[in-house]
Amino acid sequence: MTDANLSFRPAGASRTLIDALPFLDYQHGHGLWKRHHWPAQWIGPGSLPAHPIVFACRRQFTLDAPATLRLHVSADERYALFVDGQLEGRGPERGDWANWFFETYDLKLNAGRHTIVALVWALGPGAPMAQISSGPAFMLAAEEPFGEQLSTGRSAWQVKLLDGVGFLHYPHISHDGYTGKKLRIDGSRFPRDVETGAGDGWSAAVNLAVAASYPAETFGRRSLTPARMPAMLSRPITTARCRHADHADDPAATPVVSDRADRALCESFNRLLNGAGSLSVPARSHVRLLVDLDDYYCAYTHLTLTGGAGALVRIGWAESLYVNAPPARDHQKGHRDQIDGKYFRGFFDEYVPDGSAARRFSSFWWQAGRYVQIEIRTADQPLTIDRLLLEETRYPFGELKLPRCDDPKLTRAMQIARRALETGVHETYTDSPYFEQLAYIGDVRLEALTLYHLTDDDRPTRKAIIQLDQSRSPIGFTQSCYPSRTSLMIAPYALLWIGLARDFLQYRGDKAFLKPRLPGVRAVIDGFFHYRRPDGLIALPPGWNFFDWSPGFAAGELRDPNNEGTHSVLNWQIALGLRWAIELERAVGEPELVARFERLLGELTAATHKAFWVESEGLWSDDLKHERFSEHAQALSILAGSAPEASRRRAAERLASETGPQRAAVATIYFTHYVIEALRAFDHHDAIDRRLDLWRSLPDQGLRALPEEPEPTRSDCHGWGAHVIYQVSKRQRRAAAPARGARRCDVRSTPPVRG
Length: 755
Fold this sequence. Notes:
This protein has 16 helices and 28 strands.
C-alpha cells in the first residue's frame, strides 16, 4: 500500500451515505437486491495461508463513454479502495455479523481504460479486539447497467496474495492485543505500486459465498448493511516538530539526553517535516528522531524512501515518554512536555526499503498518541527519506464549540477534554484510542452526553445504542463493550446502556428510534431481578462488576471480604436504572410497565435503605456490616431519587463537605460525573466547583487529552473524563457576580437542549 496521489483529496470523497434502504425490502426487493440475496459474490484467492492474510483484488475495464458508477463495497476484515491509483476510501465500517457494513461510492469516470484495486487484509487473532470476522473476503456490487461488467462474482476480477507483510507483537506494553498487531512491510518482497494494479502474478478470483442481507440470525454469515457513519476525517498533521535526534545504538534502552543531541540532524528532519527537503542517512549508521506533535492525534503513516537496501525504518507512537525503560510496565510519566532523561515505550510499525527510488509505504491501520519516534538502521547503502506524512483520522464532527467560561484553567481543561472526545470517536466510540479502541458503555454514555452539548450530529450515538442492544446475552445484559470478538460482561454497564437510551430521549426526543430498544431495557431489568435475594436485595451477577478505578476498590470492584454477595452500590445503581426505564416506558406510552417498574423500584429502595442506611453517619454503607463506605453509594442513592428525602439530603451534605465522608472510597475521573450530578440535585455548587479542581490541574501536567484516572495513569486519552464540558454546559449563565478573584463559572442548571 502506498500514499500514491493522496494529495489530501480526502479518502472517501466519493462516498455516499445511504439513508433510505429500499434494497433491504425482503418481501419485494428493489433494484439490485433480489430478496436478501445480492447479485454479487464474496471473492478471494483460491487458497489462503494462515492468518495474517493480505491480498489485492483487481478489475480492469473500459468505458465507451463518461459515466457515473455507483459501487457498494465491503471486505472481511478491512479494505482500502483505489481507482486508477487514487485512494477512494477505507472500510468497512466496524460492525458485527448481523450488521456487516458496506460503503457506497459514486465515481465519475471518463471514457477509456480504468482499474479498480482493493487491498484487503485480515489479521484473525492478531486483529484489534473490536474487529469481528467470518474469514478473508472482498465484495463489490455495481449498480446497473454496470453489474455484469464490475460486480464480484459476475465479472473477471483477479486476485494476488501479497508477500512481504508481517505483523508485530509488543508483549512489554499492556493491552497490545486490544488494538491489533503492528505492521511490518519488506519492500524487497511486497509488490511495488500494487494499488495501481501493476505487476504480474494475478489470477482469477474464486467465488466464496453469495453476498446477502439476511433478515434473521446470521450464524456467522455477514449480513450486509449500509454504512451508518460518514467517511472519517482525512487531513495532514502540520504541527509535527523534531525535538531530539541522536545516534543511539539501542534506542529502547537509551534515554533522551539533550547533551547528546544531534541538533543539525534534528533541524534537517524538521525541514523534511515542513516539506522543504529530504533527509539522508549514511550507510552503516543508527539514527533516532523524536517528533512531538504538540497535540494528541490518531493518524496513518505515509513514507517515501530512496535507496537504503537492507535498512530498517521503525515508526513508533507513544502518548508520553516514560521515566523508566522497558520492559518496565509502570505508568510513571512525569510532565508530558518533558523528554530529557526519559524513555520511549511505544508501538512500532516497521518498513524495510528495497533500495529503489521513491519507494512508498503506508500503514494499514492508524496509531495514536502525541510522540512519534523514527528509528533508522542502515546497511551498506545510504537511505534518503523523501517524505514523511501523517494523515489525521477520526470522526468528522467539524467544530465542537465549547461553552463560554471565564475561568482560564477550566477553559483549558475543556480544550483538552474536547480533544479526548474528538480522538475517541471513529467508526465507533472508543474508550482509549491508544490502548483498547473498544466502545465500553461507561465511556460511551459520558462521551455521548457531553457531545449533545457540542454538536447536532448524533450518528455515533445512535449506532452505539443499536449495537450495544444487539450484543445482549441470554440473561438480558448487554456486553460491556461492543463490537468485540470476545465476550466481556460488566453487568452494571448494562444499566448505563439504559441511561444512554434515556439521555437520547431527553436530548433528542426521538421516540420512534427508541421504541424498538425498549424490549432490551426490560431485558436488562429482568436480568438483574433474576438475582434478587430473599431479603429483597440484588446479588452480584457473575462477571466483572466494575464501578470505578477508585483506590478504595479492587480492580474497579468493591471488595467483599465478608462474602456478603451484594452491596449498596450495585443496588442503588439498579434503582437508578429503574428510574431511567420508567422515564422511557412513560415516553412510549406503556403505563402497565411504568407501574411494574415503579413497584420494583419501591421494593428495592425499601430493602436497600433498610440494609445499608447508617443513621449515626448520615450515609449509606457499602456493606451489610456497615464497616465500609463510598462516595459511589451516596451519589447513586441521591440520583435514584427514591430513598427518603431526609436521608438523601444528609448524604449530599456529607458529599459536599470540605473533607468528604470519612473513611469513604472516593470517586475518580470517571465516576465523579455521578457525584457532581448528585451534588447538583441539592444545589451544592461550591462543592461542585471544588471537584473540578482535578480538571483544572490536568493541563499543568502537559496533557493534551484527558487521562483515564489520576496519576499514575495508564492512558493519556480517555473520553469519559470529558464530562467536565457537560458540567460547564449545565451552568451557562452566572447566577450571581463572583467575588473578586473568583474562578468559578455559573453553577445553575439550564434545561436540556433538544435537537
